Amino acid sequence: MASLAATFGRGAMTNHWKDIKNADVVLVMGANPAENHPCGFKWALEARDTRGAKLVTIDPRFTRTSAVADRHLQIRPGSDIAILGGFIRYILINDLQHDDYVKAHTNASFIVSEEYGFSDGLFVGFDEAANRYDKTAWEYERGDDGYVRRDLTLQHPRCVFQVLKQHYDRYTPDVAAGITGCSQDDFLAMAEIICSTGRADRVGTIMYAVGWTMHTVGCQIIRTAAIMQLLLGNIGRPGGGINALRGHANVQGATDHAIVAGILPGYLKVPTPSQQSLEEHFSDSTPKPLVPDAVNYWGNYAKFYVSLMKSWFGEHADSENGFAYDYLAKPDGDATWLTIWDEAYQGRLEGFIALGFNPILAGPDVPRLFEAMAKLKWKVVIDPFMLDSAEFWKAPGQDPESIQTEVLYLPSSHWIERDGSFTNSGRWAQWKEQAVDPPIGVRSDTWILSELFWRVKELYQADENPVYNDPIQHLTWNYLNPREPTLVELAKEINGHDLDSGKLLSSFGELRDDGTTSSGNWLYCGSFTESGNKMARRGTADPTNLGMHHEWAYSWPLNRRVLYNRASADADGHPWDEQRAGISWTGREWIGDVPDYGPTTPPRATGAFIMNEEGVARLFSNHLNDGPLSEHYEPVESPTENILHNNVPVNPVIHWYDGVRDTLASAENGDDFPYACTVYRVVEREHFVTSNVPYLVETMPDFFVEIPEGLAEEKGIPNGSRVRVWSKRGTVAGTAIVTKRIKPLLVNGRTVWTVGIPIHWGFVGLTQGSMANLLTPFIGDANTRCPEFKSFLVNLERA
Amino acid sequence: MDISRRTFIKASVAGAGGLSTLGFDLRPAYAAVRQLKIQNAKEYRTVCPYCAVGCGTIAYVHGSGGLNTTNTVIHIEGDPDNPINGGTLCPKGASQMQLAVSPRLQKTPKFRDAGATEWRDVSWDFAMEWFARRFKESRDATFTDRDDEGRVVNRCDGIAWLGSATVANEDAYLITKTMRAMGLGYIDHQARI
């Protein structure tokens, strides 16, 4: 998501599920929606069946999605940038880009700083000691007026378009094929399909999921795809986009509402220790427009932030105290998943609370997580079902008596026993009704959280010499039943109020930075207005016939169904394709989807990408840590060298936690892990909770290992026999499924085998099985620190 | 002749003629046409709890809603009106009844003492009192109001909150609001992984 925001300005799926039916080409890569999102995937099949769309897959395995695709290309795990970079080059050398779109809606014409460069695997500005890039040379060149210099002919040697062309010129079919292991012919056949949409009358979409994010180059894989989609003119258009398929019912919503390190609701930023005043926080967080016609919507940052603080701290947040600026914690550096585990592992974390989450199975490097968990003083697990994470102390191989961690398990109600909204991948917030009450003895998450809050607050009130707790004492809690607020009350608080009139606001356009409005999440301002709960709407009308359904539920922002929809039309506001118009300019106003600005704003007045200070989308972006353009780096455990620059084989700016290098396979240490391995899900299961569902356990009872035919033969492993697989970190054992779905690949002149492992088992379900994450490495992406679950090395033998 | 199951039963019962040779009267059997089990159920529109497609579902609930009655979910199926799934569900969604109503759903808080080999059941009052005390103790022990450089940071580095991508937006918001107010920085959920 960090990657999409770095390119387009917002970190979310650009289009929505039903919109996929409008595509001419559907690329599924880093995802397997036929198994993992079946009812959303049917819109890809609809596109194929009704429009004759081409459906293609690129994956280390021949998946169930591949089984219904027009074409499949197998690549080695972790080689995605090589193939996507190859497509970019294919577009540029064959002049297949959508020229008018690229000129109107991307930063192709922007001139890049004279200092910028890339050589031998490193972008300019690499600071080896600090393990990071100094990004000042990744800026644009400014003109005398202070704005970025542009060359609309795209001929300037330092304009983004030319820089891009030069950078990806190395990704020849030969290189792409060599790194990924596919043949050049197959690469070219796939390129021809995927790169066929750079025209006004054709649109292509991409469906991806954690097969892209779970790499040390996860963000840059997505960046590569985003660049490709921009060149083809596929962003902002119905039937286009780059669509992140989320795994859990409310991943999008929980992210929007910021149960996430580093952000506050609505993607506002958590203040840092160096920002000692509200003014400093605003100055760092509010971008300045880089061109005169950029809307630069983040220029409104202060309005969103102040309204949030008014929601949280009410009268205690005012202009005198920087809207309670000291109330918010200023964390020091990274605070994400791996860092949290590392803090526990280093013995610095005392308490760990997991709600609706089974962290021990989620990994990576489960043996390390077991050690970390045993160092905690206390742990609380809140879930409707008993979880492996709550019973880690009595897992097989653990010695409970030596584990001093106190553990509390709280049974909570689940989705059907509570109302509230889920926001799906496509940003539709759908309200659900409460069907039944929780059983006696079971409490809602809201009750548990409120009870914790009140009891802690009361303990501080009774404490004669309390640690700083003003934010706790002053947190607003204006709910009819303070021990269990209703979700309607919370939905209204999220939407926000005009504090003078007490009325619900109808749009975030009404938010102010003077403390006279409140909004718990500006992105959802407009979702619950004086006219009612828009998330509960059930209108099925679809006048556009494009599946937008504006009267069904609520889609942030402001019920917009396709993000960046201004780019669905040309510079004058005429849709690229009349049959699939996102929005169109009638001469007086915009019609179609909900536009990004006032309905009468003329087409040439502003750029299409309002969240970007460039006003356009970023082919070249200085918003990520590991490069303004993408580059192929090998996984930290790789079966081959980096043929582009073997002196910089892996992403140079990933964070190495203490001791982690020793847990990685290394040929220098004589380690023998010759096989690439990847992990995945199956349709019958969803992560771990389905291990409680008898029908699903019956249909997919046991852990297994998917082994290619030739490798199984070589190792003497018959189908159905028991096999043992181990990495430098742990060992799993299960039934061998000998398969034709994974072929041997010729990677850089050497045969590479890939093994596949499903993730669904643990030690507490109806059936037990090996945890896939016993094998995976404790290392993450250079931006998000999302772990590299999808590509590592193993060895195996018949057990 | 097109004989439906119902007319077939009628015909065969009529053929048997009142008090049959079996020794009992079969007539009531054709009077009781089988009803759909959801016929008297109340319908609730909800959303599948699994992946993020957001398939609409209908939960059918039996019970009067009266004070001394317990309402029960008896069936869950796809919501045909929902534009995303149009009533369809995948194997997981189609079997969500077994997730909604399951003997494996827990009903009692459980506590595991340091070094203990088993759980013990505890009351909610005990559980929440223990939770709040531990929370405050760790917050007090690990709270930093000013860092080494003298900067105001007001943060608690000793407690982490994880989850969840499975709760409603409104609960997600309340989690963030409460935990940020407590001073936590270590807050993350499934989106990271």
Explained architecture:
The complex is a heterodimer of chains A (799) and B (193). Chain A is α/β, with parallel strands linked by helices. Chain A has 22 helices and 31 strands. In chain A, strands 25-27-26-31-24-30 form a six-stranded mixed β-sheet. In chain A, strands 3-2-1-8-9 form a five-stranded parallel β-sheet. A three-stranded parallel β-sheet of chain A has the order 12-13-14, with no helix packed on it. The two termini of chain A are 41 Å apart. The mean pLDDT of chain A is 97. Chain B is α+β, with helices and mostly antiparallel strands and 193 residues long. Chain B has three domains: 1-34, no CATH class; 42-100, ADC-like domains (N-terminal domain of TfIIb, Single Sheet); 110-192, no CATH class. In chain B, the strands form four sheets. A three-stranded antiparallel β-sheet of chain B has the order 1-2-3, with no helix packed on it. Chain B is elongated, with a radius of gyration of 28 Å. The model of chain B is unreliable at 1-19 (pLDDT under 50). Classes of the chains: A alpha/beta (799), B alpha+beta (193). At the A-B interface, α3, α12, α15, β12 and β13 of A face β1, β2, β3, α3 and α4 of B.
SSE order of chain B, as H and E? Answer: HHEEEHHEEHEEEHE
Helix content of chain A: 10-25%
Largest interface comes to:
A-B, 163 and 115 residues
Rounded to an integer, what's the Rg of chain B over CA atoms?
Answer: 28 Å
Q: Largest sheet of chain B, if any?
A: 3 strands, antiparallel
Helicity of chain B, as a percent range: 25-40%
Rounded mean pLDDT score of chain A:
97
* Widest β-sheet, arrangement of strands of chain A: 25-27-26-31-24-30
Using the 3D structure, state the CATH architecture of the domain at 298-424 and 428-536 in chain A: 3-Layer(aba) Sandwich
Q: Measure the end-to-end span of chain A.
A: 41 Å
* 3D shape of chain A: globular
Assigned CATH class of the domain at 298-424 and 428-536 in chain A? Alpha Beta
Number of H- or I-type helical stretches of chain A: 22
- Profile the largest sheet of chain A: 6 strands, mixed
The total count of strands of chain B amounts to: 9
Report the count of strand segments of chain A: 31
Low-confidence stretches of chain B: 1-19
Rounded Rg of chain A: 26 Å
Compute the separation of the termini of chain B in Å.
62 Å
